[in-house]
Amino acid sequence: MKFERYDFQVGLRLVILFGAMLGLAFTIAYDREISLVVILGTIILVTAISFVRYTNSVVRDLGRFLAGFRYGDFQQTLSVRRLGASFQELEVGLQHAVDRLQSMHTKQEQQAIYLQSLLQHMPLPFLILHDDGRIKIMNMATRRAFNVAEITNLDDLNRFGATFQRDVLQIKPGESLLSNIMIDSTDEYYILTATEITMDGRTQKLVALLNVQEELDATELATWQNLLRVTSHEILNSLAPVSSCAQTAESLIGDVLANDVSNTEIRGDLEDIRDAIDTIARRSEGLMRFVRSYRQLTRMPLPKTQSISLDDYFRRLQSLLIDELTQSGISLHSDVHPSGLTLLADEDMLDQAMINLVRNAADAVRDSGKGQIELRAYIDNKQRVILEVEDNGAGIEAEIAKSIFVPFFTTKTQGSGVGLALVRYIMLTHGGTALYSSADGRGSIFRLIF
Which DSSP string do the residues of 319-346 spell out, in sequence order? Predict the structure, then answer.
């Protein structure tokens, strides 16, 4: 559009319109020719249309310029200086407004990018629940924790356990609770906290998740160690004099019997007493050995980690146990994937854990006739190194499986309940965990997660 002075353009059209209307009135009043009336009427109509169109064109340009703000277009310009001094002031004012809005918009975009980057790299996972049941994962920590690319609704949470799904749904803003989450066959405990946020007039619930599994494991380990330290000390202190007195009494009775006791009845009573005391002495020694075996759980050193080639480690472990297993008709196989996989761990402590697990598996399949034990090493979706010991035995009942890692618990008649507890504690000192799982017809799987 060719811009000219607005007051001149409007004034010219008004003059023409007024003159034509005056001429039309004069013509009608003095009964002039009809052709002149038509000409003047046409001039009035054309001038009025031109006036309206000219005014609308200026308003449209202003409207188009202002409409760009709605869509964030701050690159357009408006040039109305040629329309007059008043429009020049309008142009300057609007340009200042545009510059100010553009500056505010740029700052908001920078702030949004900063906050988005901050949320993405924040180590705390969290979810946002919309009032229609939709869920949005806000950062990478959530994706890493759940090992999924996206969670879109409440039904997606069911794969992590019904308890977790219920807790996320029922937790109220301002509350916090401890919830159990099943991730990649691993039970982990999280503290959930909720807060309420409002965006675009809609209320949403933000649920943050704090993993406390390591803290719980460390607390449990310290509790058991303190308990075992105190109880073993007290039991040993109590058993030591009993064992000593029993040995002394047994020795004294032996001396008496070494002499010629002529009374057969007395001699028989003394022999019965000696047998009873011998039983007390042997039982006391057995209890002392039992308690001493538990003391190793309270004295576990910190692991001295080194890089271990799992291919070489499994070969060495097989050569160590193969004769013992072959005599029982049990086959032992191993698989490392990918080949060349390494593990950062204390090799001596790892030996304790793996030998315990393999011997437990051997006990489980010893009477099956076709016992098989599989050793596996691999990397899971979270880039954790996993070691597995699987057997083809009958497995462990679900109720019993809950307690197999608890100290003192055992299902074996000659068991002490130390082995699996020691395995779990070794894993805790490595910052990992030990898990048990079983499937129908697949026996038992013990999994060490580093």
Answer: HHHHHHHHTTTEEEEEEESSTT-EEEE-
417 and 322 in a common domain: yes
**What angle (nearest 5°) sits at the alpha carbon of residue 262, between those of residues 257 and 265?**
80
* Residue 51: strand, helix, or coil: helix
pLDDT (mean) for 192-221: 81
- Nearest to residue 434, comparing CAs of 225, 223, 220, 232? 220
Kindly state whether residues 21 and 99 are assigned to the same domain.
Answer: yes
At 67-94, the pLDDT tens digits run 666 666 666 666 655 565 556 666 666 7
Question: Does residue 113 lie in a domain region?
Answer: no
| 219-263 pLDDT per residue, tens | 776 776 676 666 666 666 666 777 777 777 777 777 766 776 566
Q: Determine the Cα–Cα distance for residues 297 and 406; give it in Å rounded to an integer.
A: 12
Q: What is the mean pLDDT of the chain?
A: 78
145 closest CA partner among 192, 102, 106, 103: 192
State the DSSP string of 216-262: HHHHHHHHHHHHHHHHHHHHHHHHHHHHHHHHHHHHHHHHHHHS---
Percent of the chain with pLDDT over 90: 8
Residues 355 and 435 in one domain: yes
In a domain, 112, yes or no: no
Nearest to 328 by CA among 236, 417, 391: 391
Residues in the chain: 450
Closest CA to 334 of 394, 406, 282, 389: 389
Domain holding 445, by residue range, is 306-449
Predicted local confidence at residue 374, as pLDDT: 92
At a CB cut-off of 8 Å and minimum separation 6, what does 319 contact? Answer: none
Residue 332: CB atoms within 10 A of its CB come to: 21
Q: Which tokens sit at 202?
A: 């809609």
Number of domains in the chain: 4
Among 211, 242, 277, where does a domain finish? Answer: 211
**Residue 291 and residue 361 in one domain:** no
User: Phi first, then psi: what are they for 10, rounded to 5°?
Assistant: -70, -45
| pLDDT value of position 2 | 42
Q: Where a domain ends, among 162, 186, 211?
A: 211
Between CA 311 and CA 336 the distance in angstroms is: 6
